[in-house]
Amino acid sequence: MLTDTMKKHNYSAGPCILPQEVFEKSAAAILDFNNSGLSILEISHRSKDFVAVMDEARALVLELLGLTGKGYQALFLHGGASLEFLMVPYNLMKENGKAAYLDTGTWASGAIKEAKNFGETVVVASSKTENYNHIPKNFEVPADADYLHCTSNNTIFGTQMQSFPEIDIPLVCDMSSDIFSRVLDFSKFDLIYAGAQKNMGPAGATLVLIKEDILGKTGRNIPSMLDYQKHIAAESMYNTPPVFAVYASLLTLQWLKAQGGIAAIEKINNAKAELLYNEIDRNPYFRGTANKGDRSHMNATFLLEDETQAPIFDAMWKEAGISGIPGHRSVGGYRASMYNALPLESVQVLVDVMRSFERKMTGGL
Ligand SMILES: *Cc1c(COP(=O)(O)O)cnc(C)c1O
């Protein structure tokens, strides 16, 4: 077992930090699940105990998001958010129809690339020429599009949508890296998807929330494994689901509920983001890369003013037990991912390192 001083301050963008009690309970379930004498890794997904896990996970997702009884289905699928890039148009874009996309980063453009396989794909706005440092606003959405797709949090570029377009067509959102992190009116979205490994659980499961009445309208013949209606009919067990990833996700959702749900975790997330961004803005040796009004509370991206000082700063944060902070290659510098399970204390450690670095560079002690 790790002691507190051995545990790293894990800023990884994904797979990411999860609550310590999730690691401990998952480890225990690998040895003996529910006192069954069996490991969670060896039980049938059709066993009563696992069906109960799946049912509770699906119900708890809806409860935490305030979507219970509102016509939504929660599914735990395979294939990551990347498979949803194509499942969404397959299930929602009509034959000879069109879809609208907001291009706010690498993942959004990945979704656009897949949609083009299915029909006319209109990019309503893009911040690509500014290296995705902001969220485009005031764009027109074609009223005859089958849906609008957006990405609520841009994991790589450190931007986050603060508001969502008011439209009369279905709204689809990739929430991989900020689902369960802040209160939104989730009923404004008709389809939400998220790879588990950013803020919900280990890699291997993908959460999809669908307002059921938007399905079945395309006229397309959809292969079974890519058909949301087939997965709904099978209660998210059309084939063997990612048993362990669903179980660990359930543990994280239970942890979140015990913290007081999304509203409670949002307060802590806001405090973490404020602490770090205040330091980035105050400290003359650093600067943020994203426009201030669009900054992400999940992934803070920042650079050293003088990149030749990187070896000194890097040695300091490593010494402080920080892990996973180098930036994505398309932005460079640093990216501090502050998902739900990252404690405020870990952010304080990073801020303290930034302050020590400043003192060192200015010749103090
Ligand atoms: C990580 C990420 C993805 C890709 O997720 P996979 O599960 O690896 O396919 C897609 N969208 C966003 C916003 C992400 O952060």
Keywords:
365 residues; alpha/beta; 16% strand; globular; binds pyridoxal-5'-phosphate
Amount of helix: 25-40%
Uncertain ranges: none
Task: Characterize the main sheet.
Answer: 7 strands, mixed
Number of strands: 14
Work out the radius of gyration.
21 Å
Describe the structure.
By secondary structure, the protein is of the alpha/beta class. The chain is 35% helix and 16% strand. It has a 7-stranded mixed sheet, sandwiched between helices. It has a 3-stranded antiparallel sheet with strand order 11-12-14, covered by helices on one side. Strand 6 and strand 7 (159-160) form a beta hairpin. The protein starts with 8 loop residues before the first strand and ends with a helix. The mean pLDDT is 97. The protein binds pyridoxal-5'-phosphate (PLP). Pyridoxal-5'-phosphate (PLP) is lined by residues 14, 80-82, 107, 151, 155, 174, 176-177, 195, 198.
Give the gist of this structure.
The protein has 365 residues and is α/β, with parallel strands linked by helices.
Walk me through the topology:
Elements: E1 9-10, H1 20-31, H2 48-65, E2 72-77, H3 80-92, E3 98-103, H4 106-115, E4 120-126, E5 148-151, E6 153-154, E7 159-160, E8 171-174, E9 191-195, E10 206-211, H5 228-233, H6 243-259, H7 261-282, E11 286-288, E12 299-304, H8 310-319, E13 322-323, E14 334-337, H9 344-361
Parallel strand pairs: 1-13, 3-4, 3-5, 5-8, 8-9
Antiparallel strand pairs: 2-10, 6-7, 9-10, 11-12, 12-14
The structure holds pyridoxal-5'-phosphate.
